[in-house]
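Reminder to self: tokens first, then the designed residues, so the page reads top to bottom the way the pipeline ran.
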């Protein structure tokens, strides 16, 4: 390696231009072969760096969002859920609902793809650099209860209020006491018209009385959630059962 090259690489390391460092040798040779102008050569190198940083930033957002698994909107087979409007769901992927601070509610039995679609939209939001967090209703409630006991509730609520998109999965798997419902209400209130929430539940609204001990708080929560919401009841069959049936037939 000649002295100039060694020096350049040292400078790139100091500046943490990792993509330029990785591509430097190859790009320099290519530039010489193709008689690239100085500026064209510089653009080629800098574009690599920008691309790498964008990819790293998306990766960091996805990791911070704590998705339980990664699934994309493109992987969702709409023909399996004919009752669900593909057009309306795909329209959500434009993420206008986040700019408008609207909510999305997926309702339906297990296995119909509620979590899949929530994750798919969440991943899209990460790619658009929004602050996203995925959590389950159970985990969220537990966290709020702990925070209310140790005096950090306001801090916790502020943390949640700063998210562009909060995904609350599986409301209804556990009953919600009056104290828990009050905390949930505070969370929904602080996010109201401030950020988007995606909520999934195995119960339709009429049945929420079975989730919440306190019906007054339950309707207050529903009221705020649905005020600016896209609501999707998904009533088709479970994808998991489909897979089982196929395996059974084979
Ligand atoms: P739910 O949250 O409604 O219980 P999930 O979203 O967890 O269901 O879906 C269960 C599994 O089936 C996941 O692996 C998901 O990716 C897959 N799945 C569900 N519906 C579809 C679909 N229409 N197309 C492709 N995969 C699907
Ligand atoms: Mg689910």
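Designed residues (250 positions):
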């Amino acid at each position: 390696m000649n002295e100039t090259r060694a020096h350049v690489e040292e400078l790139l390391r100091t500046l943490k231009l990792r993509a330029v460092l990785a591509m430097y040798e190859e790009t320099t040779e290519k530039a010489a072969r193709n008689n690239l102008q100085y500026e064209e050569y510089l653009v080629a190198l800098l574009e690599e760096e920008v691309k790498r940083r964008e990819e790293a930033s998306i990766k960091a957002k996805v990791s911070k969002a704590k998705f339980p698994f990664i699934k994309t909107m493109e992987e969702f087979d709409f023909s399996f859920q004919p009752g669900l409007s593909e057009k309306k769901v795909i329209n959500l992927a434009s993420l206008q609902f986040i700019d408008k601070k609207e909510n999305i509610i997926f309702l339906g039995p297990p296995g119909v793809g509620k979590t899949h679609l929530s994750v798919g939209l969440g991943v899209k939001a990460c790619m658009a650099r929004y602050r996203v967090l995925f959590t389950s209703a159970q985990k969220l409630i537990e966290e709020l209860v702990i925070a209310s006991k140790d005096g950090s509730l306001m801090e916790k609520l502020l943390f949640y209020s700063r998210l562009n998109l909060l995904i609350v999965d599986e409301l209804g798997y556990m009953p919600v006491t009056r104290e828990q419902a009050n905390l949930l209400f505070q969370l929904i209130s602080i996010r109201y018209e401030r950020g988007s929430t995606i909520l999934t539940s195995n119960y339709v609204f009429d049945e929420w009385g079975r989730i919440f001990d306190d019906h007054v708080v339950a309707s207050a929560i529903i009221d705020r959630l649905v005020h600016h919401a896209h609501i999707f009841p998904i009533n088709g069959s479970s994808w998991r059962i489909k897979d089982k049936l196929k395996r059974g037939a084979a």
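The mean pLDDT is 94.
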